[in-house]
Amino acid sequence: MLIRISRIAALFLALAWAGCTNDPYPDADKGRKVLYTSFSEVPKTLDPAVSYTTSEHVITGNVYDTLLEYHYLERPYKLIAGLAEAVPEPEALPDGGQRYRFRIRPGVRFHDDICFGARSPGQRSREVTAQDFAFQFARLADPAINSPVASSFVQVKGFQAFAKRLADLRKADPAFVKQAAHVQYAKAGGIEGVVAASDRDLEIVLTEANAQILYWFAMPFTTPIAWEAVAYYDGREGRPNFADHVVGTGPFRLAVYDKQLRYVLAKNPTWYGLRDEAASAPGVAFPSNIDPADVAAKRIDPAYAGRRMPFLDRVNFARERENIPRFNKFLQGYYDDGGIIKESFDAIVQGDRLSPDMAKRGMRLDREVEPSIFYIGFNMNDPVLGSKGGERSRKLRQAMSLVVDTETFLQLFLNGRGVPAQSPLPPGLFGYDANYRNPFRQPDQAKAKRLLAEAGYANGIDPATQAPLKLTFDMGNTSAQSLLESEFLVGAWRGLGLNVEIAATTYNQFQDKVRRGAYQIFRWGWNADFPDPENFLFLLECSNAQANSNGPNTANFCNDGFDQRYRAMKDMPNNETRLRLVKEMLAITEAERPWIELFHVEDFTLSHAWLINSKPMGLSYPAFKYKDVDPGMRERLIAQWNEPVRWPLALLVIGVIALAVPAVRTYYRERT
Amino acid sequence: MILVQNLLVLTIVAGIAWVAYAASRDRYWRESAREMWRRRPVALVVVAIYLVIGLLDSVAWVGGTVAEDPTAAYLPRSVIDRIFKPEALKEASYSAPLADKAFYGSDALKHPGKHWLGTDILGRDVLYRTFKGVRVALLVGGLTSLVAIPLALLFGVSAGYFGKRVDDAVFFTMTVLSSVPSLLLLIALIMVLGKGAVQVCIALGVTGWVHFCRISRGEALKLREMDYVASARVLGVSDGKIIVRHILPNMAHLVIITFALSFTGMVLTETTLSYLGIGLDGSWGQMIDQARNELSRTPIIWWNIAAAATALFALVLAVNLIADGLRDVIDPRTRRERT
């Protein structure tokens, strides 16, 4: 018995010695064009009408095609034609409205899927028609689907009327709901402003001019959806829900979807881009006008110009809950790209560039300022801080704005990964001025003290109580990290003599406070939906105020001059007048200080040398079709970086033997 | 509020002094104290230091001026605050213990060599923060034990002594409470009661009495069958008197051990709660929570977590050692063996 066990152990050891590797992927994938990456947040839904987070768009953006797309390389962002043959020009209508005509490319087919065989046996797919877009628009309007972006389409003619008709029909007849969605929509009469003129012609009619609506056609919300898929994938009889099953048209199919653990995107052989008639479509070939700066940074390989996409066979997503193991696997080469964790930042990045160690490995560091803003907001309905306080409160807000040192904040908490914000507009947007310096955002303690004294709070003393003015900083997060950040901010105000207390509650309790209007100072952020100043300035418009309409204007900022200009610039194309209006609006926020603008996040992405054509994608959704990998280089470098360390194993064996010897000796001694 | 707090401190100090005085007049207690001192001198000193720091941090008053933080002059500051002057002692960010320059970069510190345990991310002195944690720990441990133990004794002894319906009722409550995972119950209670020192102490007290209740019930069950209890009952002594005269004194050693154990248990539980983000502000748990990611930094920042963990460890160990020593000294059985 003893001999047999030792023989097995010897065999095992010999095997372990020879085939020693920590490669987590099957050998069959060696040499194939597979991109390995990771995710941490589990997608909630893949229904393109609902999914609204980055973790979901990573999938939906690549499996669903859109009529329009963002140019992969050009900045500022530019729209190109996707499923549409061209980016449409608006046509003015006599009633003040607008019409956009989309001509849909021929030969666009849905992914092969059994749902098409449910009605007509044997059918595996079908061509996309304009009706499929109209169907998705009806879904966006459907109150039961509760799309988070429904309000963005209210200018589509008949959008709200359709939603109301649908709701009325459902209320009147309980049996109505039991029918398939497309039947219900047909009975409710469809949306007046979404017209399928022919199988390949889609017309969108708006009740008023809106230049920004085109951006929505570059997002997965407006993708064509097959009614067969929605009817078939209803979650009954073992079929998955539509939210967990993708039937799109995109360059990739969702081949594996085990959402807690991993998912796999696989090249879609029936993608329209792989047919010859689509050869000239801009969303099919890699762009030719490559910026030399991208080439110099080795981000983009110029040899790819004009080549047919997609290049990858598969994209493999593995779930990583924790930052540190994910980052270590990236360093070992098992993920092709990754962010930088705070803990290792100083080892990876030195003085804005990769450290020599990392650069030697051929790694690439890409930085892009995200179209986002983080800010501190004041509740403008508050008697002390808000607009009712007039000049006194304005000067108080200005003083508080003057002492918040974002530069230091970014250094302490984000390794400097951000750009101090001067206005609500992030870089790259129309109206952003790189040379503009907000006079109230340059830390100046002396000026702040002066303003505070002018406001009647000399040295922070509230004349009513003869004690430091008491304010509350409301936080919807009880984590240690955010408490530290708040302590930093509050510390700056305490230096002025203001007694700002931190009220840290759970996010739900904080939201409840916001609903009741019981808050003074808060911290919030916003990520752009589309690259237009309107998408940031609407956060300060009166009709969006939290107190009026539960809108996103949590600061409850209401200013007539601002609102007038907002209405005027909202749907204007980018021109001189619009620029002037935006500047004037920014001047109002500068003086009024409903926000203390903190920073725009700068995204640092690391990628290995074998990952080709990887550029921070910002707003662009279908990114994987542009990317490629060099599997040979990957295999070589991984082998080089992961030399097995064998001495611990030897040590282990010696240890086991040392422990076993007395036992064996005792065994033989006792047996006799 | 401040007045009440200061009066409370005064009461505690007076109480300790009175107990010490009263004990010194009694030969038995004098000998017990001497025996304790012989057995656990270091632990006693450690606990005494903690007590002094905690009490000094509890005596606070408004007054004086602080140049760096004008609001501080209007808020009550404790003796510890006044000794350390934390507003003046601030640096820009991290600095290592006794360093004379910042940890990142090479900026000179404002107070080189003065930070015995370094500074944290916001440049606050770690030694000061550790000292501030003492009061929180003593408050949590002491207050909740003072709530939980009488509660447990009341229910446990009455259940054990009277039995029948009382026992059924108490035992049912105990079983229900202990069948819910205590950490979940704690979190739920804090969610309902809200954050704050009193709320956390109440939640800890409510969940903490069950264990000792079980022990004291068993002990009372055993003691009520004793001959001297039976003879007292035959002589017509009332139940209340029997409990006070014969049951409780025989459980004194249990109470003391449980006090010490639950004291340290509560301090540790509060640390866990702080780690989950629902504990008390300024506790060691919060320091550990804020510092946990610093351990995986390169180069490593260890002094935050080390200071909090050492302070916690020393207190828990010292209290446990004292409890152990006390048990040996005052338990009637071991005392008899000794003499």
Main attributes of the structure:
heterodimer, A: alpha+beta, Dipeptide-binding Protein, domain 1, Dipeptide-binding Protein, domain 3, 3 domains, 22 helices, 24 strands, 17% strand, globular, B: 339 residues, mainly alpha, MetI-like fold, two-stranded antiparallel ribbon, 14 helices, 2 strands
Q: Ranges of chain A with pLDDT <50 over ≥5 residues?
A: none
CATH architecture of the largest domain in chain A: Roll
Mean pLDDT of chain B: 86
Task: Give a quick account of the main beta sheet of chain A: strands, pairing sense, barrel closure.
Answer: 8 strands, mixed
Distance between the termini of chain A: 18 Å
Mind summarizing the main beta sheet of chain B?
2 strands, antiparallel
**Strand fraction of chain B:** under 5%
Please characterize this protein's 3D structure.
The complex is a heterodimer of chains A (672) and B (339). Chain A is α+β, with helices and mostly antiparallel strands. Chain A has three domains: 2-20 and 644-670; 41-250, Dipeptide-binding Protein, domain 1 (Alpha-Beta Complex), CATH 3.90.76.10; 372-603, Dipeptide-binding Protein, Domain 3 (Dipeptide-binding Protein, domain 3, Roll), CATH 3.10.105. Chain A contains 22 helices and 24 strands. In chain A, strand 19 (470-475), helix 15 and strand 20 (499-504) form a beta-alpha-beta unit. In chain A, helix 4 (159-172) packs across helix 5 (181-188), helix 12 runs antiparallel to helix 14 (445-454) and helix 19 (560-570) runs antiparallel to helix 20 (576-592). Chain B is an all-alpha fold. Helix content of chain B is 70%, strand content 1%. Chain B contains 14 helices and two strands, in the order αααββααααααααααα. Chains A and B meet through helix 13, strand 18 and helix 15 of A and helix 12 of B.
